[in-house]
Amino acid sequence: MANKNPKWLDNAIFYEIYPQSFCDSNGDGIGDFNGIIQKLDYIKELGCNAIWMNPCFASPFGDAGYDVSDYYLAAPRYGTNEDLKRLFLEVHKRGMHILLDLVPGHTSTEHKWFKESMKASKNEYTDRYVWTDSIWIEPDGMASLRGISDRDGSCAVNFFSHQPALNYGFYKPDPAKKWQQPMDAPGPKATLEELKNIMRFWLGMGCDGFRVDMAGSLVKHDENGKGTIRLWQNVRAFLDKEFPEAAMVSEWGEPDKSLQGGFHMDFLLHFGPSHYNDLFRCENPFFAASGKGDVFDFVEKYKESYEKSRADSKHMGLICIPSGNHDMDRLARHIKGDNLKLAFAFLLSMPGAPFIYYGDEIGMNYVENLVSIEGGYGRTGSRSPMQWDSSTNAGFSSAPAEKLYIPLDPSPKRPTVQAQQQNKKSLYHEIQKLIKIRQEHDALQSRGEIEFIYAKKNEYPLAYVRSCTGKNQSGEKILVIINPSEKEVSFTCDLKNLGGASGDSTDLLKNAIYTFGGKIKLEGKKIFVAGKSAGFYSL
After folding, report:
1. Four-way CATH pick for 448-538: 1.10.540.10, 2.60.40.1180, 3.30.1330.60, 3.30.499.10
2. H helices within 226-383, ranges in order?
3. Residues in the chain with pLDDT < 70?
């Protein structure tokens, strides 16, 4: 889709904030907007220049705010609309940007739209949700709510039973099932226009765009995403016309579809075909020290998606590899010690805008065996309060410990921002250093190109070249080598063929812009890489 992309994404580095767990300013045990404002300088000092904040709209919080009861109202637990507007202003004062989390696929059962849609008499919201025309008929292939109102019908739900599915239509409705409405029917069209109104409202208030929840799920009985792609192309056209600097980032996990739909960026996630879990979250992750991981399938799938994303090189979308998010186990559950630094050397040297999940920069732990809080279930352990310092409740809140939204990590060795800022060899400082290097080199930023040099089945290291060699670009080329395994490994690479150094060890080492761990040395055309080491080299 040949449209302009917001320029600020070119060097964006995002920090994901789970608002209820970040900083509590009023002592009620729940994080809030004013708490976030108090910590904006921290985020900027780390080096991040953009924020994604998880849902902050009014909600009964049966699913952490992903069950919205009013899209136009900030959740009172966090503050008011004016407080949120002030957050936007404070972010912008610091030269940063902020994305809100948009949930377009479903609402809470407490939303006024749903309460109206349940009525037996026809009204403007009757077709706002996916209802069958009989209580005895469930929607094909979807869970449903039924027997909940006087309306004769069952209502499809998207995830939890309290999240009724909004109606954007069916890609190919079954003519025998009149309740399956086409995408251009009045109900689906009204839902789409209301989605634009919601976006228009918050963009007008000062936010810079949206991360879109379950973006690939809107059109029902879709055919290879065709209907949903068409829907998002419609939304993108609206944004390009009215808010051309607004960014739209998808939770889709299939960049070939999402970017075609007009999203500026898509995440590679723990679900879908990306092999993202092979890197960080499986029995033998590639970035673990054991050296039993495999990066090959990830690289092959990444290359496929990357080439599709660049089919229109002028208006290409971005692919993001996040450190984690509110739906995944913490990175530190699977990757330990210095290997976390190597994982971030990878994350911060890849194309697309990096996303750092709050607390991952200090290696926060996944808190085991927590009781589910507000629909978190197994995800609750990744949502514990941010650990700022050694004071009460790790500096998160002045509330009594038993009133905290989620219990703190009980480990006496839990990392804190304060301790890591005081230790120059900490993960925090390594990430800060890597971000600074990324921002100083165009080739390492979002739109720099990538060519994989070494990524073999069941082998180490991983090596790739980042470059800016297009028209009116710097011509910069940087070789990245990362060996997370404990053992020294080697691979053959002719640097001359990369347009680089003459080929001896001295040339390679003197062009280093970043090194970590043991030595990386060149002998002829063979590069030897010490265990648990990384290096970035100008070519």
Report:
1. 2.60.40.1180
2. 226-242, 255-258, 277-280, 296-309, 338-347
3. 1-3, 312-315, 499-509
